[in-house]
Design goal:
The complex is a heterodimer of chains A (160) and B (242).
Chain A: H1 2-27, H2 33-64, H3 66-78, H4 83-94, H5 96-115, H6 121-147
Helix pairs in contact in A: 1-2, 1-5, 1-6, 2-6, 3-4, 3-6, 4-6, 5-6
Chain B: H1 2-8, E1 12-22, E2 27-38, E3 43-47, H2 54-61, E4 69-74, E5 77-78, H3 84-94, E6 95-98, H4 110-115, H5 125-138, H6 154-167, E7 172-176, H7 184-201, E8 204-209, E9 220-225, E10 228-233, E11 237-238
Parallel strand pairs in B: 3-8, 3-9, 6-7, 7-8
Antiparallel strand pairs in B: 1-2, 1-4, 2-11, 4-5, 9-10
The chains are: A mainly alpha (160), B alpha/beta (242).
Chain lengths: 160, 242
């Protein structure tokens, strides 16, 4: 949920950066090419910086949740599930909520972008990147648990 | 003859098992050349203070951890010789593990948690459902199947963990402090279940425990201290290769 909320904020920041970069200058009918260019350049830089920061922070959020997710994988491993089944269960239980949220936020941001005649590829690309990051992370944790020698289930697993 | 073979197929043996953990400055031996054999179909307690190596020993029997030296043989299988798929099959079908800290998945209901060992089994879903309900009922939680772990008490979590350990009908049950969070009455009920698994279903049950009250319910006892066996009681347990 934290991951999803954070993604939403980043996508919204993309939207506002776009807004500043293109919509506002257009609507204010800024005539001065130098001013227009300056606003657009700064806004574009801000948009990319927000995207990069978003991916870094999303990664941090995932790292923070590592213990909880690893504990789940360890339980699946300890009870003899194959790694593919454990990964599938992990995806089902830990990605559906965040992905629904990411998809919703991406769609909303992209639609508003399109409504303003702006390029919606950036928020869509960012949404896809967040989703890919989540899948890669879950795959990494599954692989890490299944390749370890000892039992670490204790890596945070407790009930409830 | 058949009975002997079957019992051997459920035996647990540790042969000169050493487990060492290395830190930056030293190497610590959790188990130090431990050797013993538990007869198939018996119920045996491993007793010792915290840090004596009980959980390490159980994890080794469950093939969740492996010896630095020596070998562990469970139900005729040397755990460190198992390949990836054999290991999964072993963990799923040969042993049923009850963890000290329960290790239930927080977002799954009791029913779903107990179902986990049956996921890879090729059984009709009606059969799986039947087995899950039976396991949950056996530990007295029939009315709480749809509860999340966060909605269960400590004792109920313990019993949920036991239900998950039993549902797969494995020939070897490994239980780490199964009565640790229970009062005397509940602890006694849990022991009834484990004793029944051994007596009536010929399962080998190995219990790591602090709870000395259960010792009159088991067939044998292995006393462990600082990773070493100090004493063995009961005819079903022998010092093996020592």
């Amino acid at each position: 949920m934290v991951f999803a909320g954070f993604v939403t904020l980043v996508l919204l920041s993309q939207l506002s950066a776009h807004f500043f970069a293109e919509a506002i200058p257009k609507h204010l009918l800024v005539k001065n090419a130098a001013v227009l260019s300056s606003i657009q350049q700064t806004s574009t830089e801000l948009a990319y910086a927000a995207a990069a920061l978003g991916l870094v922070f999303a990664g941090a959020v995932l790292v923070i949740t590592r213990q909880k997710i690893s504990a789940d994988v360890d339980i699946y491993r300890a009870t003899g599930l194959p790694s593919s089944e454990a990964f599938a269960r992990l995806v089902r239980s830990h990605s559906v909520g965040p992905l629904e949220w990411v998809a919703g936020a991406t769609a909303a941001t992209a639609l508003v972008d399109l409504d303003f005649g702006l390029n919606a590829l950036i928020p869509i690309g960012l949404g896809v990147s967040f989703a890919a990051l989540l899948f890669v992370w879950l795959a990494f944790l599954t692989s890490a648990s299944f390749s370890q020698k000892g039992f670490d289930g204790m890596s945070g697993g407790r009930a409830g | 003859m058949t009975l002997t073979t079957e019992a051997d197929g459920r035996a647990i043996s540790f042969e000169s098992v050493t487990k060492a953990y290395s830190t930056k400055t030293e190497s610590v031996k959790a188990l130090d050349a431990v050797s013993f054999k538990v007869e198939g179909g018996s119920i045996v307690a491993v007793v010792g203070p915290s840090g004596s190596g009980k959980t390490t020993l159980l994890n080794m029997a469950a093939a969740l951890d492996f010896p630095t030296q020596g070998s562990v043989k469970v139900a005729g299988l040397v755990t460190s010789a198992l390949g990836k798929e054999e290991l999964q099959k072993f963990r799923n079908e040969t042993v049923g593990v009850v963890f000290q800290q329960f290790f239930l998945i927080g977002h799954l209901t009791l029913f779903q948690n107990v179902m986990i060992p049956l996921i890879p089994r090729h059984l009709p879903s009606s059969e799986k459902t039947k087995r899950i309900h039976e396991a949950i009922a056996k530990v007295g939680l029939a009315d709480k199947a749809e509860r999340l772990p966060s909605e269960l008490s400590g004792g109920e979590l313990q019993r949920a963990a036991i239900a998950r350990g039993l549902v797969g009908d494995a020939p070897v049950i490994l239980a780490d402090e199964p009565t640790g969070n229970l009062d005397h009455k509940r602890g006694s009920e849990v022991m009834d279940i484990l004793v029944e698994e051994s007596r009536e279903r010929s399962k080998t049950v190995l219990i790591a425990t602090h709870d000395l009250r259960i010792l009159d319910r088991v067939d044998g006892t292995v006393y462990l201290e600082d990773g070493d066996i100090t004493k063995i009681e009961g005819r079903c347990v022998q010092r093996d290769g020592a």
